[in-house]
Amino acid sequence: MSVPTDSRVTFDGRFARDLPEMAVAWQAAAAPQPALLVLNEPVAAELGLDPAFLRSPEGLSLLVGTAAPDGATPVAQAYAGHQFGSFNPGLGDGRALLLGEVTAVDGRLLDVHLKGSGRTPFARGGDGFAAVGPMLREFIVSEAMQGLGIPTTRSLAVVATGRDVRRETMLPGAVLARVASSHLRVGSFQYAAATGNPDLLKRLADHAISRHHPAAAAAERPYLALFEAVVSAQASLVARWMLAGFVHGVMNTDNMTISGETIDYGPCAFMDVFDYAALYSSIDRDGRYAYANQPLIAEWNLARLAETLLPLIDDDQEQAVPLAVAALEAFRPRYSAAWLTGMKAKLGLPADADDDVASALANDVLTLLQDNHVDYTSFFRGLGSVVRGDARPARDKVLDVAAFDAWAARWLAVAPDADAMDRVNPVYIPRNHLVEEALDAATAGDLDPLGRLLEALTKPFEERPGLERYAAGAPDDFGAYTTYCGT
Predict the structure, then answer these.
(1) pTM score of the predicted model
(2) Is 254 among the residues known to form the active site?
């Protein structure tokens, strides 16, 4: 299929060509009646794809994978992974296909990937399909992350297939077209290492260096430098999650990217009331991936990546291990520094503010929020008003007013900048009750709530009249929130 474009676009099959042992050529399942639900025109523009074409029958065929564009090599990618701590050597894209890579208008090489396109050899008993709700959830949350400035995969489109899928009930099916810097994961390296093929592992590492961390190629130990770069990227990413109150929900090693982008928005959610133990996944019964555990799990996952890279770091394992350990030990200080820098910004403090003072203010206010069951996002946004002389937007949310006043006096003494705070503390996040409202409506055929929610989330720091309900916390009758993977 020739693809009309606004600028020159060619699909490539670099992953399949470089790593054929990890790519199974495959075809998407038929979509009886494809219908576009939502198209991300800015992402289409970044790729150089014409939105009018993507809305056409031929474009919809591309977006559901039933007609591959010229140059594309649709493949299901192989990877392994620790799932809730248990290793599975043979996971892979059970319901997804990598169409290929596209050189974006700005020169970046990006994957175009489908989710929910049917069973592959990695399906492990699943039907390979996806329902409208979970695919739109990924669209909503990934766009919210983009708006917040958090590295993320992007959603290009969600297309209804005209096929119902069986979950607890019969639900309308859909395919998500996703864009990413790549889909290389910690689990990709675990798969290559488990094959016992040192040449495959080396080619995978070289592929990752070329795509994501090219400076590592010039290092004295390129594969150690690759690991160091992934450690740094993930430390920054998880700090941003924590600062935004985001709970990923399923931080298995196959869901941690080498690029440092957030991927696989399954049972994810943003906190309303601040809670270190916040957990929304229906399958995480022990709280392994709860909010406060995310930095520790990221470090654990990186240790698994280090294990795969040891033969490349040095031929002598006794030399390789201490080098990898030293690189991994950089995660905690890098994470802490990124988190504290972000907290200084949220509190309106200059970057050069005393670290001990800033850390005490940040940790004390989080304890205040935890003890008083305070909405995280609206409290921090309300702090700007405190600086401007009206304490009510933050103070009125705290039951222990005396404790708030004591903390606020310490904080105001360091002269926070309210305008700077408004640039980093969002007004709008994907509130769980609003996400569910939009998904329920869309599943029933009404896309208006989805459009209104996306309008708020694409400019999260800009307070706008008429969007007040998108800034408000959950209603009292919303109750405990649980999310599902959708498989």
Answers:
(1) 0.96
(2) yes
